[in-house]
Design brief:
It contains six helices and six strands. The chain is α/β, with parallel strands linked by helices. Strand 2 and strand 3 form a beta hairpin. The radius of gyration is 16 Å and the shape is globular. 35% of the residues are buried.
């Protein structure tokens, strides 16, 4: 990702970060860490050449939508531009499929694979989503296991964070979790 700038911002779940390119495409998003310093370390590690800056209007709009979503409100990110040219083509296809999942709904890894025309690629879908540099904006949290389990989540807090995001969107109830989730 070719981030030139990034901004930290507060949400109902904690401090997040967003990075962008000179062309105002999103280069990455950081979900809340265990503390503010963790998010700052994430930004320094993932966008080392980027400078802290005030976000331009297009990015302020994305930040407002992230804030709304993390507060339990509706948000649509299908119009967002991504700096994804360096990502593998399969990952870009997976992210496009995830973007099409409406808030409050989920698909399984296998359903996403089938939509991509490769029904045997559920594990590859999971790996692509685990590498998602745009969490929340590309809603990888809306993809779950075929057995109804929450599945993995590479963001801070892991599956608990994923469960919380789905609950905010009305797609998951905490009492749905099995003993083995």
């Amino acid at each position: 990702m070719s981030a030139v700038a990034y901004a930290l911002f507060d949400t109902a779940l904690g401090r997040c970060a967003i990075a962008w390119t000179a062309g105002e495409a999103i280069a990455g998003v950081a979900l809340p860490g265990r503390d503010e310093q963790a998010v700052e370390r994430y930004a320094a590690r993932h966008w080392p050449a980027a400078a802290a800056a005030a976000p331009p209007a297009a990015l302020r709009s994305v930040i407002e939508r992230i804030e709304a979503l993390l507060a339990g409100g509706p948000a649509d990110f299908r119009d967002v531009r991504f700096d994804d040219g360096a990502l593998p083509p399969f990952h870009r296809r997976v992210y496009a499929a995830a973007l099409a999942i409406p808030p409050g709904r989920t698909l399984t890894y296998g359903e996403v694979a089938a939509q991509l025309g490769d029904p045997g690629a559920a594990q590859a879908v999971g790996q692509a989503l685990g590498a998602n540099p745009f969490p929340i904006v590309v809603p990888c949290h809306r993809v779950v296991g075929s057995d109804g389990r929450i599945g993995g989540f590479s963001a801070p807090g892991g599956a608990d964070t994923k469960r919380r995001l789905l609950a905010l969107e009305g797609a998951w109830q905490y009492d749905q979790a099995s003993l083995f989730d």
